[in-house]
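To the wet lab folks,

You asked to see what we're planning to order before we commit. Fair enough. Below is the target structure as tokens, and below that is the sequence we designed to fit it. If anything looks off to you, flag it before the synthesis order goes out.
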């Protein structure tokens, strides 16, 4: 479904309110690399059958060390948590689904880390109820549709601001993909599509997550396949 620009902006604003605190900046650090190289992306919290998981692109997770960034709105009480949760043994913490390009982590250890530090997570979750099923994914055709990406960008000053990008998604060569390349930091971010409900209201669906750029855009790992990966985590 292709929306008019005003409606796209309204949807993007609503998504930020409903799910902004489900989005977390992630950074892998290749310890020992000569240039101290760091790769930045986005992860998000997903809830299914009473359990919570962190999802991101698998390409971000093969490193000996990494961290999850924290902004003040996702922890409580204020001023207690550090700026990031360090993750030694980074690659080993994830269940890797390289065939999908997705990595899944149970958040049990993250909550234990917070408890030990005297703070709590104050987050939102992408619920399974809005994750696209096979029929919704099959309904994406060659005609571009509106899509909204929530991500943590990578500022020139090293900051990781929460950002929203209004894009186009379509099926190209049998692959569901975003039609343009996204800025640094958007890898692993969730992508939301819209469709008209029976009452004429716009309904949201989380289509999947952003995979590495290819051919001028980004293929998506779609939720009709991600669910199986989550169940195996």
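Sequence we intend to order:
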């Amino acid at each position: 479904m292709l929306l008019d620009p005003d409606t796209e902006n309204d949807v993007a604003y609503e998504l930020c309110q409903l799910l902004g605190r489900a989005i977390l900046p992630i950074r892998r650090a290749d310890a020992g690399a000569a240039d101290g190289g760091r790769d930045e992306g986005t992860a998000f919290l997903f809830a299914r059958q009473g359990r919570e998981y962190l999802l991101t692109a698998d390409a971000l997770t093969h490193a000996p060390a990494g961290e999850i960034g924290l902004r003040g709105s996702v922890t409580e009480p204020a001023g207690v948590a550090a700026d990031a949760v360090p993750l030694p043994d980074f690659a080993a913490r994830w269940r890797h689904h390289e065939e999908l390009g997705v990595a899944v982590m149970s958040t049990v250890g993250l909550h234990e880390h917070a408890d030990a530090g005297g703070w709590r997570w104050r987050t939102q979750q992408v619920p399974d109820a809005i994750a696209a099923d096979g029929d919704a994914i099959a309904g994406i055709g060659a005609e571009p549709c509106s899509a909204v990406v929530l991500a943590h960008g990578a500022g020139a000053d090293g900051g990781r601001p929460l950002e929203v990008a209004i894009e186009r998604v379509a099926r190209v060569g049998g692959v569901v993909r975003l039609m343009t390349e996204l800025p640094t930091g958007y890898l692993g971010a969730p992508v939301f599509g819209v469709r008209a409900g029976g009452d004429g209201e716009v309904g949201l669906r989380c289509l999947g997550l952003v995979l590495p750029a290819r051919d001028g855009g980004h293929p998506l790992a779609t939720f009709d396949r991600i669910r199986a990966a989550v169940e195996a985590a």
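Structural context that might help your review: The longest strand covers residues 38-48. The first helix runs from residue 5 to 19.

Thanks,
Computational group
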